[in-house]
Amino acid sequence: MTIHKASxxxxxxxxxxGGENFILxxxxxxxxxxxxxxxxxxxxxxxxxxxxxxxxxxxxDDEVVYGKINxxxxxxxxxxxEAS
Length: 84
Prior knowledge:
Blueprint: E1 13-17, E2 20-27, H1 28-32, H2 44-56, E3 64-69, E4 72-77
Antiparallel strand pairs: 1-2, 2-3, 3-4
């Protein structure tokens, strides 16, 4: 069971995160099969986000999306998506 019932409103769109183009796929839990990023057992995107979120002090919740920057997968908190 996923945490978010509907897809993220910006899914399959390119947005800006940290000054980079981020191709937003969808909520992390929808992409991962329903699990929280906090319980994804060694997945690089989750580990990277854990370090990243601690550094930036983003909220510790499941309001995170998965996408790609230059072909590499990342999780980012929705608060990091830059306004267009």
